[in-house]
Every structure is written in C-alpha cells, then in structure tokens.
C-alpha cells in the first residue's frame, strides 16, 4: 500500500493534486484531480464523484491557498468517478461565466448529458493542444479502459496525465484489451519521464511502469493459454479459470478480475487461439491450439 496521499498537494511548479475524497477498492485513495498551470487561471483535469462535499471543500481550499481560479475543465473519460463532480463544481465554484468542459467523444458517437446541468461537452480530438499559462497539454487518444479515454501530455515536464489507463499502484481494468494494449504501446513510445495517474501516487519511472503493464498483460495471457493447453479438450467457465489464474487476488476484486479474464479470452478468440461454447448456460472456453 502506498503512503497516505494528502488531500491537497503541490506536486511540481505547475501541478497541484486535489484528492476526490472517494476511496474504494477501484478508486484506491480516491480519484486524483489536477489543477495545471502556473498562472492565476488553471486547467482542472477530472472532477471526482457526485455529491462529495469534502471534495468541493478541498478544491475550494486549493483555489484559495494558491490564489487561483479554474480556466476550464477536462475529463479523461466518461466514468462517474471522473465526471461526477462537474455539476457540484458548476454550482459551488463560480468563475464569472460557464465553464468549458471538454472530453473525447464516445465511440460510436452518442449525445452525453452532464448530469444536473444544461451544459454540453465540448468535444476534443486526438492531437488537440490546450494551453494555459505555464502549461501545454496535448490530447492523446488512449482507448481500452473506455472507448472515449484520453491521456494528456504535459509538454513542459514530459509527463502524462494517464487517467485510468495507468494507475499509481496496481493494474487497471479495461473494456477492450486489443485497444488497451495498443494504447500502452503508444504511451511507451512517447518516452515520458513522469505519470500523473487518475488514482494512486505519482509514477516517477514512467517507462518502467508502462512496460510492466504490458508485460503483466502478456504474462496473464500466457497463463490462460497454459491452463487451457495443459487441459486440452477440457472446457472451463471464466470463474473456474479465475480460481486458477487469479488465485492470489483478494475476494473483493474477483468480479473485476473475471471481467478482465473474459476480455483476455475474447481477444484470444479473435486470434483463433481459443474457442467458446456459446450454447452452454455459462460460456465454456477451451484451447484451439
């Protein structure tokens, strides 16, 4: 377990982290939200969950402590622990006009509503550049965790705000493993020095962390293939495989682990390495090799 993260912390001359005050098994010590820039108006990245007055209090305190205001809001993806605080910020922290709130669009595109507000998102695209005094952020389309996930490259520090693509500790969940692996490979090629993750502490050896994520997924895939190949002809449900492959995973994380394992199996099915009996009440998987 990482050391306790302060609710407000200045991480560099241009990055202040404000914890979302929403700890849990999937959010770790809470969602990390970031105020970015060096001037009087900063970009806020992510907003935590809805109806967390402690977070709004901490965000107000940070704005007061550093004598700054919010220029605009960026959200890394649609999950409610990143977008959920938007309405509370709009209602409780005023900047003289409506906030511009930006993200990447869902794929396929669908209309998204900011809960409790009449506001709509301003949609970004891969490669867009956002600027504030002292900070330049370049949008990186990194699908996999979600279909709309973006990371942001902070040019001045060669750092990446990774959202939920990479966490400060542990591994991330994802919706599409093929896309996720492509996103990790792209981030690795950027040779960033630092990662400011969506949850958990700052990652100071970015390249080693990303390579570790890639190696972990490849090792998991090989574990699954080994179990199926060692039991050629025998079929398994995903929960039967979980108990073999994820035997050291805590009970409260097994549902997320089963989801990850099923996505590994779907990727392997696409590659012709495993087959599935769709007619069985519980899907049963076996090796095709």
Number of helices: 7
- Name the poorly predicted regions: none
**Sheet with the most strands, sense and barrel status:** 7 strands, mixed
Shape: elongated
What's the number of extended β-strand segments?
14
H/E element order: EEEEHEHHEEEEEEHEHHHEE
List the strand order in the largest sheet: 1-2-3-4-5-6-7
What percent strand?
A: 15-25%
**Structural Rg:** 20 Å
Any overview of this molecule?
- The mean pLDDT is 94.
- The longest helix has 25 residues, at 206-230.
- The chain has seven helices and 14 strands.
- By secondary structure, the chain is α/β, with parallel strands linked by helices.
- The strands form three sheets. A seven-stranded mixed sheet has the order 1-2-3-4-5-6-7, covered by helices on one side. The protein has a five-stranded mixed sheet with strand order 8-9-10-11-12, with no helix packed on it. Strands 13-14 form a two-stranded antiparallel ribbon.
């Amino acid at each position: 377990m990482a050391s306790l993260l302060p609710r407000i912390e200045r991480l560099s001359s241009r990055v202040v982290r404000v914890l979302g005050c929403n700890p849990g098994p999937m959010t770790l010590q809470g969602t990390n939200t970031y105020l970015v820039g060096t001037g009087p108006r900063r970009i806020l990245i992510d907003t935590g969950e809805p109806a967390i007055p402690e977070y709004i209090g901490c965000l107000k305190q940070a704005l007061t402590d550093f004598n700054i205001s919010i220029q605009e809001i960026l959200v890394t993806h649609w999950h409610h622990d990143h977008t959920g605080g938007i309405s509370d910020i709009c209602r409780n922290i005023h900047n003289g006009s409506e906030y511009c709130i930006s993200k990447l669009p869902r794929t396929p595109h669908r209309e998204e509503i900011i809960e409790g507000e009449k506001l709509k998102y301003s949609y970004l695209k891969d490669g867009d550049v956002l600027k504030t005094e002292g900070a330049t952020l370049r949008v990186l389309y990194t699908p996999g965790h979600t279909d709309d996930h973006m990371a942001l490259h902070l040019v001045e520090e060669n750092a990446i705000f990774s959202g939920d693509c990479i966490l400060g500790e542990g591994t991330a969940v994802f919706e599409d493993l093929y896309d996720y692996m492509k996103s990790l490979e792209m981030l690795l090629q950027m040779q960033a020095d630092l990662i400011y993750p969506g949850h958990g502490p700052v990652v100071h050896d970015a390249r080693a962390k990303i390579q570790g994520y890639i190696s972990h997924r490849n090792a998991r895939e090989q574990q699954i293939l080994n179990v199926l190949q060692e039991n050629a002809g025998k079929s398994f449900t995903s929960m039967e495989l979980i108990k073999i492959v994820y035997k050291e995973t805590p009970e409260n994380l097994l549902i997320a682990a089963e989801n990850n394992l099923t996505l590994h199996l779907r990727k392997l099915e696409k590659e012709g390495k495993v087959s599935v009996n769709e007619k069985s009440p519980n899907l049963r998987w076996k090796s095709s090799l």
